[in-house]
Design brief:
This protein is α+β, with helices and mostly antiparallel strands and 678 residues long. The chain contains 29 helices and 13 strands.
Length: 678
C-alpha cells in the first residue's frame, strides 16, 4: 500500500475508537459468569488499547494482587467479518471471469483469509496458541523472547485475560538494543515458521514489546498460520539457495513453494525470467531495503559504465546502457531455455520484504498463466515485512535475508533429515564437490550468533557467556555423536582429506625425497639382462611410482589453505573464549571473563567427559574416512578418464591395487562400527 494508506490503517492496530465500556463490562461478566467487582480489585474505567476486533482493559486480581490485561471482543464482529467474506467470495468469480488467465485460486485465497479471520475471533484458540508459543520457545532455549501468561480461569471464547506486561512498543523504544531485539524477533519467527509449524501472523509494531528486563514479548496470537512440514523444508531449501547465491535452483524452489504449478516449470524456465529473479534476489540481499538495493545497483552501474576517458556517464546514458545489457542477459537466459521474455526493474521505498512482495505480485500479474500466489504467502510476507520495517527504522542498512542466516545455521546443524542435508550441502558445497570451509566457518559463527542472541538477555548483551557455551556444546554434541549424522560425516571427511594432503605435502617437500624425485633411472637393460638389474632398478621404480601418487594437485593446494579454517572451527567446538587468566571490566561497568585459555581447556575436558563413550566410535569413523580418502585419491590418480594425472604404468597399477586393498580395510572398519550398534 502507498505510505499514506498504510499510515491510516496503522490506527487499526491499537487506536480504533472504542465501543462503550458499559457494554464491554457486561460482555465480560456474561462470558465469565462473574461480577467484575467481586473478582477484580481494580478495573480501568476506559480501555487502554482498542483495535479492530477487541479492546483491552488493565485490571488487578483481588485474590493474588496480580496486574492483568483483559481483552474483550467487539459486539457483532463475527457478523461483520462474515458479511465481508461473503461479499468478497461473491465478487471473486466475477473478477476471474474477466481475468481468466489468472493462475491464482482467488476463491481459495479468500477462504484461507476467512479461516484466519474467524479463528482470530476465538479467544480460546488464541490462549492455547499463546501458551504453546511460550512452551516451544522455552524448550528450544530461546530465553530472550516470551508471551503473556494466560489466566485460563478468567478467559473464554470472547474474553482473554493475561498477566500484564510492562513494556514499550519495539518501534517506539529509545533503547540501544532495538537491533538486538529485531534479531531475537526474527529468530523467533523463523523458529515458528520452520520448526514449530505455527506462525504468528500479526506482528504489527503494537504486538511487539520490549519488556523492562530487555526481553521481547509478542502479543496477540489470534491469527496464526499452520505451516506443514513439507512447506517448512521447501522454505529451508529456498533460504539455503539464496544464502549460497544458487539462483539457478530458484525455479524449482518456486514450484515447491506453490508459486508455480509443476506443469508450468518448463514455461517458467523458457520465459527468461530466471535471470531477472536472480538479480532481484541478489539486490534484495544487499541490505537497506529497496533504497539500499537501488543504491547498490547504481553503484554497480557507475563502476561498470564509463565514458571513454574513464569519467562518469550522464545518468540517462548509463541507464540506457544498463537496460540494453539487462535485456541482453534476459535474452541469453531465454535463448538458453528456447524462449524469451523480460522483467522490469523499478525503484520503490520501504521494506525489502514489501518490495519483494510487490515484485512477486507484479510477476504474477504479468505472467498470470505461470505464477500463482499461495494463500500462506499473504500472512508470511506480512509478518516478515513488519519485522524488516522495524529493523530498517533503526539501521538503514538492515538486510533481512542476511539476518536469517543465524537461524539457518542452527537449523541445518541440528536437523539430519534428508532434505535438510541437501540444503546444508547446497550451502557448503554450492554446485561443486569441494567444501567451502569459509562457509562452514560462517555456519558455526551463525550458530554462535543465534544462541548468543536468543539464550538469555544477559547472553545477548555480552554480560554472560551462556549463549556461546551453548553453541560450543551443540557443535560438540553433533561432532561427538554416537550415531552418524551428516555434519559429523562432513567434518570427519574433510579432516581426513586435509590430513592426507598435509601428510603428502610433508613427504613431497621433504629434503630426503627431493633427490629421489630428481633421480633419472637408467634405460631398461636388454631383455635377457633385465632380471639381473631388477634388484637395483625395481625398488627405485617403485619408489618413484609411489612419489607420483603423492603429488600435490590444485585440489590438495586448496585443502591445505583450508586447514587453518578447519583448525579455527575445531577451536569453536571447544568454546574458546578470549585470552588471559582473570576477570576484568569491559569498560562499561560490566564484568566479563577473560580467562579464555583456562575456560577452553575446561570446556574441552567437560565435553570430552560427557561424550567419552562415543569417542572410540568417532575415532573409528575418522579412521574409515582416512582410508576412504586414500581410496578416492588412488582411484582418481589411476584413472586418467576421471581427471587423473599422466602417470607411469607402474604407478597406475599400484594405484588400482592399493585402492582395491584399502576397500577391504574400509569395509572392515564399517562392520566394526556397525557392531557397536547391536
Amino acid at each position: 500500500l502507498p505510505p499514506i494508506y498504510a499510515k491510516g490503517l496503522a490506527g487499526l492496530q491499537d487506536a480504533v475508537p472504542p465501543f462503550s465500556s458499559v457494554e464491554g463490562r457486561a460482555i465480560i461478566e456474561k462470558e465469565l459468569g462473574i461480577r467484575i467487582n467481586d473478582v477484580f480489585a481494580d478495573f480501568s474505567s476506559e480501555p487502554v488499547a482498542s483495535a479492530s476486533i477487541g479492546q483491552v482493559y488493565k485490571a488487578t486480581l483481588k485474590e493474588s494482587g496480580m496486574d492483568v490485561a483483559v481483552k474483550v471482543q467487539r459486539p457483532n464482529v463475527l457478523r461483520d467479518v462474515a458479511l465481508d467474506l461473503f461479499l468478497m467470495r461473491r465478487l471473486a468469480p466475477l473478477y476471474l471471469k474477466y481475468n481468466n488467465d489468472s493462475n491464482t485460486d482467488l476463491v481459495g485465497l479468500i477462504d484461507a483469509w476467512g479461516v484466519g479471520f474467524v479463528n482470530e475471533l476465538d479467544y480460546e484458540r488464541e490462549a492455547e496458541a499463546t501458551t504453546a508459543f511460550s512452551v516451544a520457545m522455552k524448550e528450544r532455549g530461546l530465553g530472550s523472547v516470551t508471551a503473556p501468561e494466560v489466566m485460563y480461569d478468567f478467559s473464554s471464547k470472547r474474553v482473554l485475560t493475561t498477566r500484564w506486561v510492562d513494556g514499550v512498543r519495539l518501534d517506539a523504544s529509545k533503547t540501544n538494543d532495538v537491533p538486538r531485539l529485531c534479531g531475537v524477533a526474527l529468530n523467533a519467527y523463523l523458529t515458528m515458521l520452520l520448526d514449530t509449524g505455527t506462525l504468528h501472523c500479526d506482528p504489527h509494531p503494537g504486538n511487539l514489546l520490549r519488556t523492562q528486563d530487555g526481553k521481547l514479548c509478542i502479543l496477540d496470537f489470534g491469527m496464526c498460520l499452520d505451516v506443514p512440514q513439507d512447506l517448512q523444508l521447501s522454505l529451508l531449501e529456498f533460504i539455503a539457495n539464496l544464502q549460497a547465491e544458487n539462483y539457478e535452483r530458484v525455479p524449482e524452489d518456486l514450484v515447491k513453494l506453490g508459486f508455480v504449478p509443476p506443469e508450468k516449470l518448463g514455461e517458467l524456465r523458457a520465459s527468461g525470467m530466471t535471470f531477472g529473479i536472480a538479480q532481484m534476489l541478489r539486490l534484495a540481499g544487499e541490505g537497506g531495503g529497496p533504497k539500499g538495493a537501488m543504491e547498490a545497483l547504481v553503484a554497480e552501474n557507475k563502476a561498470k559504465y564509463k565514458a571513454e576517458d574513464g569519467s562518469d556517464l550522464p545518468t540517462k546514458e548509463r541507464q540506457r546502457r544498463f537496460r540494453e545489457d539487462y535485456m541482453k542477459e534476459m535474452a541469453k537466459d531465454a535463448m538458453a531455455r528456447e524462449n524469451g521474455n523480460n522483467m522490469k526493474v523499478e525503484e520503490s521505498g520501504g521494506s525489502t520484504a514489501v518490495d519483494l512482495t510487490k515484485k512477486i505480485e507484479s510477476i504474477q500479474q504479468q505472467n498470470s498463466n505461470v505464477f500463482a500466489i499461495p494463500d500462506y504467502f499473504v500472512y508470511m510476507s506480512r509478518a516478515f515485512a513488519t519485522l524488516e520495517g522495524i529493523g530498517l527504522s533503526v539501521d538503514s542498512r538492515y538486510t533481512i535475508l542476511k539476518e536469517c542466516f543465524p537461524y539457518l545455521a542452527k537449523r541445518l546443524l541440528s536437523d539430519d533429515s534428508p532434505r535438510a542435508r541437501g540444503a546444508l550441502k547446497t550451502l557448503l558445497y554450492g554446485n561443486g564437490d569441494e567444501l567451502n570451509l569459509s562457509k562452514l566457518k560462517d555456519v558455526t559463527e551463525g550458530l554462535e550468533s543465534y544462541t548468543t542472541s536468543t539464550t538469555s538477555v544477559e547472553s545477548s548483551q555480552g554480560i554472560s557467556a551462556e549463549g556461546k557455551n551453548m553453541a560450543g556444546e551443540q557443535i560438540a554434541s553433533v561432532i561427538l555423536s554416537k550415531e552418524k549424522n551428516y555434519v559429523q560425516s562432513i567434518l570427519l571427511r574433510e579432516a581426513a582429506v586435509a590430513l592426507d594432503a598435509v601428510a603428502r605435502n610433508a613427504v613431497s617437500s621433504s629434503a630426503i625425497v627431493a633427490p629421489l624425485r630428481r633421480l633419472q633411472l637408467p634405460p631398461p637393460p636388454p631383455g635377457p639382462l633385465a632380471p639381473l638389474f631388477a634388484p637395483v632398478t625395481l625398488p627405485l621404480e617403485i619408489a618413484k611410482a609411489i612419489l607420483e601418487l603423492q603429488e600435490i594437485d590444485a585440489i590438495d593446494a586448496k585443502r591445505l589453505e583450508n586447514v587453518n579454517v578447519l583448525t579455527d572451527l575445531a577451536s569453536r567446538a571447544v568454546n574458546r573464549e578470549g585470552r588471559g587468566s582473570e576477570e576484568g571490566s569491559n569498560g562499561d561497568g560490566r564484568i566479563m571473563n577473560i580467562g579464555g585459555d583456562r575456560e577452553a581447556i575446561e570446556s574441552l575436558l567437560r565435553q570430552t567427559s560427557l561424550h567419552r563413550d562415543n569417542i572410540a566410535r568417532v575415532g573409528l569413523r575418522f579412521g574409515g574416512e582416512i582410508v576412504n580418502a586414500q581410496i578416492e585419491r588412488l582411484k582418481k590418480r589411476g584413472n586418467k578418464d576421471a581427471g587423473g594425472h599422466e602417470i607411469s604404468e607402474l604407478a597406475e597399477r599400484l594405484a588400482k591395487d592399493g585402492a582395491s586393498r584399502l576397500e577391504l580395510v574400509a569395509d572392515a572398519l564399517e562392520r566394526v562400527d556397525q557392531s557397536y550398534s547391536r
